[in-house]
Records
---
Amino acid sequence: MELAMDEDRELEEKIAELREEFGALLNDEAIKKLALEELGKLVLNRKQISDLRDREGASLEVRVIKIYETREFNRKDGTTGYLRKILIEDDSGSCQLTLWDDDIEIPETLGITEGSRLALINFYIKISDFGVDANKGKIGRIEVLA
């Protein structure tokens, strides 16, 4: 019984944190789903790479093939941006994991190396002439799997 109360309290705290972060951008149902997902109690839209569609949210379990160096670029507004690509694969195919700006240091921070297994949770998928990109975005999360 104590464990359930602790889990409820943890969920309530996470909901309050997300409500403060996202304000009116997300409704109560979306905030609760996001809180459950961030606490590892709900994984939304788990897919294989071969099943990814343009402009959808997806969660993947992948293996890192190659981590590329960070690239610096100039944005249209004159500011400097940073981009880092990671080649990933699962049993169905491969694609690029794209990290932007503050997220480019995630491989070092989490100890990700070539061969690491990752869970990519709530990533945004973009398909272009250059192939499939899984973008972390603001609500995406990366977990290193054992």
---
Amino acid sequence: MNPDIDIPIHPSIPINVTLEMNLRKNSIAIPKKLTPPLAYFVGLLRDGNLSRAKRSYKVRIYQKDQAFLENVVNRISQDLFNKKVKIMKSGEDFVWQVDSKPLFLFFTKVFEYPPNKTQKWWGTPRLILEAPPEIQKWYIAGFVDAEGSICLEDGKPVIYVYHSWNNQTECPPLSDLKLMLNKLGINSNGPYLYKHSNNAFRLRIRNKNALTFLQTIPLVRKTYLSPIKRA
């Protein structure tokens, strides 16, 4: 059974221009279906942002792992959007960045990303919430690869997923993630505040649920399972 979902393209996205991607080297392709790679990429945007300034429409993903952006994110973006970019340094991080109005509109209209706002204002896209578990597990993988850590506590893996929100009473993206995990038979603790100064929440997965997670969720990053938890 093919789990891919047709994407309702918003009329403001200049889709006709992007259809010529095979004829123009630098054009952007717009996906027509929500596939596992696209769901994974949307999850990665949990450590990214979309910004607009005059004629600039930027889509960014941040990581401390330069090789991950170069070898994984670039490969996925090449397959999905016909775009491969040079990874740049950004403060203490590295950034994958594309300046493209069609791609910017694709994520703001289809996946409801609020432009020029931080992650604290981006709820889980409706398309992800309504997707089958076969698609949702790839979104979960991208989310955790972007904003998660796996550490060893007493020799056993414990998974943490982090996210900040615009208040200290709830964190909808993590609450939605918890429900998606439940559908896959994975229980978790939280989300709960762990840094009261900046509205930061986290979800914790441990014991047999951590093992089920590692067997079920198709994580791509390899810099995990360290006895020291990644910040």
---
Amino acid sequence: VGFLPSTFLQDEKDEEPDPPDWTVVCAAVAGGLFPNIAQVEKSVPRTQSQQSSSPGDRNKWMRYSIMQRHLSGTSTITYPKACNMHPNSLCFGQDRFQCPWLAFYTVQQTTKLYLYDATEVSPWALLLFGSQPVKNEVSQKLEVAGWMKFHCARQD
């Protein structure tokens, strides 16, 4: 009929869509889930024989902590609380993270305190979408929510 050029379908096949920018997606997730942020640290196995390739064994060497919040009268008390990644979570058994911060949707107490629905988030996302950063002049660190600390050395 002539409404479209004859090369229309060929051009459509040749164009590949741009891959999604997952950094932006994770930043939006961090902003939406804040203050549900967990810190993750890896402890090192003492011997080579303690290392394993199974997700359960790899997860043994990961340490997760969240800031527990309690409202009491007119004040809020916060303190760090150890937790675990739930075995059904996609992050269970992951032992390599680019940065030590995870945003999570749910934390639930069953036999242990478990994190569900977690994803890695960048420090920049926490600085931009978290609570107001406070600069500690002595340690030269920015603190977000009183416990997330980011080193920012002064450059002259």
